């Protein structure tokens, strides 16, 4: 008898608990989070033509966390990288031909305005970014493999299309 009362009590408490859950208490898997910056690499001499990098490594300045790694010699023609949602800029090191004799390192500083959008109680906030007109100041240095850049879409609201073109 005591066992039945205990089980009924547990069942009753469980039902009450789940009845009080609201839609905002659960962040669904399909809820979009803070979008990443999508970069495509083009030939500096023929700006309409995609040009893959060599083996590419991208990581934060003064940090050993790798944001993007492509080890093969063929590299990639596009990447998506997270921007720092606590600052108005993100400084990254781009290692072109990473691990090879002709490795070339560029430190790029992406500048933007950031906005936090409230989604709901369970998911919290989502960041959105607007690239500044001079988004990559000081990108062109002696020996730089990055020759120029173009902002294709200044508002980083989703990951559906390219935001920035880098010419090398």
Summary of the model, kept short:
The chain contains 1 helix and 10 strands. By secondary structure, it is mainly beta.
Our count of helices gives 1
The share of residues in extended strands comes to 35-45%
Task: Sum up the overall morphology in one term.
Answer: elongated
Strand order of the largest sheet: 3-2-5-6-7-9
State the end-to-end CA separation.
79 Å
Structural class: mainly beta
How many structurally independent domains? 1
Outline the biggest β-sheet: 6 strands, antiparallel
Order of helices and strands: HEEEEEEEEEE
Number of strands: 10
The proportion of residues forming helix, as a percent range, comes to 10-25%
Overall mean pLDDT stands at 84
Low-confidence stretches: none
Compute the CA-based radius of gyration.
23 Å
Descriptive key words:
168 residues; mainly beta; 6-stranded antiparallel sheet; 4-stranded mixed sheet; 1 helix; 11% helix; elongated
Topology, please?
Layout: H1 2-19, E1 37-42, E2 56-60, E3 66-70, E4 78-81, E5 89-96, E6 104-120, E7 124-131, E8 148-151, E9 155-156, E10 164-167
Parallel strand pairs: 1-10
Antiparallel strand pairs: 1-4, 2-3, 2-5, 5-6, 6-7, 7-9, 8-10
What does this protein structure show overall?
The protein is mainly β and 168 residues long. The protein has one domain. It has one helix and ten strands; from the N terminus they run αββββββββββ. It has one helix spanning 2-19, and strands spanning 37-42, 56-60, 66-70, 78-81, 89-96, 104-120, 124-131, 148-151, 155-156, 164-167. The strands form two sheets. The chain has a six-stranded antiparallel β-sheet, with no helix packed on it. Strands 4-1-10-8 form a four-stranded mixed β-sheet, with no helix packed on it. β6 (104-120) and β7 (124-131) form a beta hairpin. The N and C termini lie far apart (79 Å).
């Amino acid at each position: 008898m005591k066992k039945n009362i205990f089980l009924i009590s547990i069942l009753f408490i469980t039902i009450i608990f789940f009845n009080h859950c609201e839609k905002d208490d659960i962040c669904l898997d399909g809820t979009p989070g803070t979008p990443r910056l999508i970069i495509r690499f083009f030939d500096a001499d023929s700006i309409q033509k995609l040009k893959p990098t060599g083996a590419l490594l991208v990581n934060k300045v003064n940090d050993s966390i790798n944001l993007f790694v492509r080890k093969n010699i063929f590299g990639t023609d596009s990447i998506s990288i997270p921007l720092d949602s606590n600052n108005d800029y993100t400084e990254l090191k781009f290692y072109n031909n990473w691990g090879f004799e002709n490795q070339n390192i560029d430190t790029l500083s992406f500048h933007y305005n950031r906005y936090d959008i409230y989604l709901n109680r369970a998911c919290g906030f989502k960041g959105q970014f607007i690239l500044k007109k001079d988004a990559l100041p000081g990108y062109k240095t002696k020996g730089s493999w990055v020759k120029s850049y173009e902002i294709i879409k200044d508002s980083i609201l989703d990951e559906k299309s390219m935001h920035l073109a880098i010419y090398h």
